[in-house]
Design a protein that fits this description.
This protein is mainly beta and about 150 residues long. It is about 10% helix and about 30% strand. The protein has a domain of about 90 residues: Immunoglobulin-like, CATH 2.60.40.790. It has one helix and seven strands, in the order H-E-E-E-E-E-E-E. It has a four-stranded antiparallel β-sheet, with no helix packed on it. Strand 3 and strand 4 form a beta hairpin.
Length: about 150
């Protein structure tokens, strides 16, 4: 057996705490009794957000949902919230052997980098992908300034 002397200055206490947190997360991981991962509100639905010259585009994966199952809110000048509910999709009296698809209510909120024009926001749901177009507010758009000589 090899013995090494412990040096408190050699390893970072932060690294040790992160390792402990990782081990605790692994030990008490979010696994349901069927073996699949449980519903994680913070990451459903998965989102992509990008900025174009005149606004922002947000895409969310919502397979199996209709527009009537989704609510979209723009509050303040740049706060987007997507709410909805997805049913489990299985028959009520069936014996469930495995469930990996999440279900239930969800809420995702995000702050956009600039103000948007709430009156011109458009949303489409096609093939399970929700696309939200949020035009920038006129005050948030860059304005070219003419240089006079």
């Amino acid at each position: 057996m090899l013995l090494t002397r412990w040096n408190p200055f050699e390893t970072s206490w932060l690294r040790q705490m992160q390792h402990l947190q990782g081990e605790m997360n692994r030990l008490f991981g979010r696994w349901d009794h069927w073996g699949g991962s449980s519903f994680d509100v913070a990451t459903f639905p998965p989102l992509n957000v990008w900025e174009e010259d005149d606004g922002f585009v947000v895409q969310a994966e919502l397979p199996g949902l209709d527009m009537k199952d989704v609510e979209i809110y723009v509050t303040g000048q740049n706060q987007l919230t997507i709410k909805g509910e997805r049913g489990d999709g299985g028959p009520e009296k069936a014996v469930q052997h495995r469930q990996e698809r999440t279900f239930g209510k969800f809420v995702r909120s995000l702050t956009l980098p600039a103000a948007v024009d709430q009156n011109k926001v458009e949303a489409r749901l096609e093939n399970g992908v929700l696309t939200i177009r949020l035009p920038k507010h006129e005050g948030a758009k860059p304005r070219k300034i003419e240089v006079k000589g």
